[in-house]
Every structure is written in structure tokens, then in C-alpha cells.
């Protein structure tokens, strides 16, 4: 009984971490539980190029920003801050017949981080600001 009372914190800690990884394994979703922000944006008739997205990623201070030809996805990282260890960024530019859309994923790099203090959403807002998208009102002018 002394063993349990002496090490209760570590026992609970290890069980919690094991439960998180077990849940990810059972659901077959490696991003399950991990804090993330996913957003989709319809670009309406705006012509956004790959270079525009890479430039916006660099202005947003996303490190190692690049386009992966094989997966057709933009990737980058955001470094350590007081609200998160680091985040992984994935952006997909989807071209359909006469419309473009963009999907944005910012996910904490530490798989056990279940709360992000709003950092992933701030990454998305910073990216949109630097992409300089025109609003529908500006397009009609």
C-alpha cells in the first residue's frame, strides 16, 4: 500500500498517457484528442497561386514552409511559445471547375497536448491576414 501512495501521481500520469495513445490507436486517428484548428475557406473567384500561399506562410512566421508535390499540400511549423511547444501546419489548395477553396490545419506537435490556449486559431487568423484575401465587398468594387 505504501508503494501506491508514494507513487500515485506517476501511476495516474502513466495511465493517462497510455489511455491517450490507446484511444488514438483504437479510433485509427493519429490526430484524435490532440488540440487542433481546422478551417475551410471558399476563395470565390480569387486567383490564389502556390507562391501566394508560400509567401503568406513565411510572413506568418511559419518555419520550414514548403509545398509537397506528392501530397499536394503546403507544410510548415510554428516554434515554441508559452502557449504551446510547437504546431504543425498543413494547407491544401483545392481547385475545382471554376472555384478554389483552401483547407487549413494547425495541430499541436506534441500528441498528448489536448489544450492549445487558442494558439492554433491564432495561426489561422495570422495566415489569413498575410494572405491578403479580398472580401466579397472588395471584389464587387
Could you please describe the fold and organization of this structure?
It is a single chain. The longest helix is centred in the first third of the chain and has 20 residues, at 8-27. Strands 1-5-4-3-2 form a five-stranded antiparallel beta sheet. The protein contains five helices and five strands. The protein has helices spanning 2-6, 8-27, 50-59, 119-131, 136-139; strands spanning 36-42, 63-68, 73-78, 87-95, 100-108. With 141 residues, the protein is α+β, with helices and mostly antiparallel strands. The chain is elongated and about 70 Å long. It has two domains: 1-30; 34-139, TATA-Binding Protein (2-Layer Sandwich).
Produce a short descriptive summary.
The protein has helices at residues 2-6, 8-27, 50-59, 119-131, 136-139, and strands at residues 36-42, 63-68, 73-78, 87-95, 100-108. It has a 5-stranded antiparallel sheet.
The helix content, as a percent range, equals 25-40%
CATH class identity of the largest domain? Alpha Beta
- How many beta-strand segments? 5
Derived from helix and strand composition plus strand pairing, the structural class reads alpha+beta
CATH architecture assignment of the largest domain: 2-Layer Sandwich
Envelope shape: elongated
Distance between the termini: 75 Å
Order of helices and strands: HHEHEEEEHH
Which whole number gives the mean pLDDT? 87
Strand content: 25-35%
Transmembrane segments: 6-23
Keywords: Membrane, Transmembrane, Transmembrane helix
